[in-house]
């Protein structure tokens, strides 16, 4: 008897996807695939650049004059562009395409500079956040108090002094901030940047309208 040894050869092809290229559902860093577009990025940029400070921009330009005012505007525009380029260059460590991502300022400082500079960066960031929180709380309370006083003047016909304290409005705004900060993944809400961008354009529109009204009142 003879035994026939039939050997079957299987052709197996395995597609190995490099880790840095990510996959269909995940990016190269293992996180969910980013779904942002140029529109969402533009909304984020607008909200970062344009804030409530634009309401006082016309007054600031008027104080500087027609030569120094636009010159300062162009100067700060260049500074914003330059720092944005620096931030984009620091987003990845090592290779600009496949290097490790730096998600925060501290991550970038830790991977590029290291040492005591990391603690200095964290200290500056927290001081900045602390100052911004105080500034916006005061600005919000002053704005709400101004609306209340305006209504009081209209109701009394300008006869009452309408003195009032801003403390209740500060407390109200602070409590609102605390409640909103409890929302999980608040920074991941995609439509929030759209709303903020609309508000930024609203700031600009109000500033433009006030400027037009001021010029028109002086001309006629």
Automatic annotation (TrEMBL):
Keyword check for Transmembrane: yes
Cellular localization per UniProt: Endomembrane system
InterPro entries (UniProt xref): AA_transpt_TM
Transmembrane regions listed in the UniProt entry: 41-61, 67-87, 126-147, 189-213
GO cellular component, one term: endomembrane system
Assigned keywords, A-Z: Amino-acid transport, Auxin signaling pathway, Membrane, Symport, Transmembrane, Transmembrane helix, Transport
Coarse class of the protein's main subcellular location: membrane
Highest taxon in the source lineage: Eukaryota
MF terms (GO), sorted A to Z: symporter activity
Amino acid transporter transmembrane domain: residues covered: 34-213
Membrane topology note: Multi-pass membrane protein
GO BP term, pick one: amino acid transport
Family classification: Belongs to the amino acid/polyamine transporter 2 family. Amino acid/auxin permease (AAAP) (TC 2.A.18.1) subfamily.
Function of the protein: Carrier protein involved in proton-driven auxin influx. Mediates the formation of auxin gradient from developing leaves (site of auxin biosynthesis) to tips by contributing to the loading of auxin in vascular tissues and facilitating acropetal (base to tip) auxin transport within inner tissues of the root apex, and basipetal (tip to base) auxin transport within outer tissues of the root apex. May be involved in lateral roots and nodules formation.
Protein name: Amino acid permease 4 isoform X2
UniProt organism field: Prunus yedoensis var. nudiflora
Lineage: Eukaryota, Viridiplantae, Streptophyta, Embryophyta, Tracheophyta
């Amino acid at each position: 008897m003879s035994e026939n040894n039939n050997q079957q050869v299987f052709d197996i092809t395995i597609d190995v996807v490099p880790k840095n290229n990510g996959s269909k559902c995940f990016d190269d860093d293992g996180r969910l695939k980013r779904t942002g577009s140029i529109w969402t990025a533009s909304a984020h940029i607008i909200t970062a650049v344009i804030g409530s400070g634009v309401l006082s921009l016309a007054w600031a330009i008027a104080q500087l004059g027609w030569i120094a005012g636009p010159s300062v505007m162009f100067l700060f525009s260049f500074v914003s562009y330059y720092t944005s380029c620096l931030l984009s260059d620091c987003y990845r460590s090592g290779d600009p395409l496949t290097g490790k991502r730096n998600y925060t300022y501290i991550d970038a400082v830790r991977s590029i500079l290291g040492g005591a500079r990391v603690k200095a960066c964290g200290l500056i960031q927290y001081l900045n956040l602390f100052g911004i929180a105080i500034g916006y709380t005061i600005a919000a309370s002053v704005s709400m108090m101004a609306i209340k006083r305006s209504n009081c003047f209209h109701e009394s016909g300008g006869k009452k002094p309408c003195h009032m304290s801003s403390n209740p409005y500060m407390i109200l705004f602070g409590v609102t901030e605390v409640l909103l900060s409890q929302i999980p993944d608040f920074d991941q809400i995609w439509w929030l940047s759209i709303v903020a961008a609309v508000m930024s354009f609203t700031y600009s529109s109000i500033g433009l309208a006030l400027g037009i009204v001021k010029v028109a009142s002086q001309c006629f």
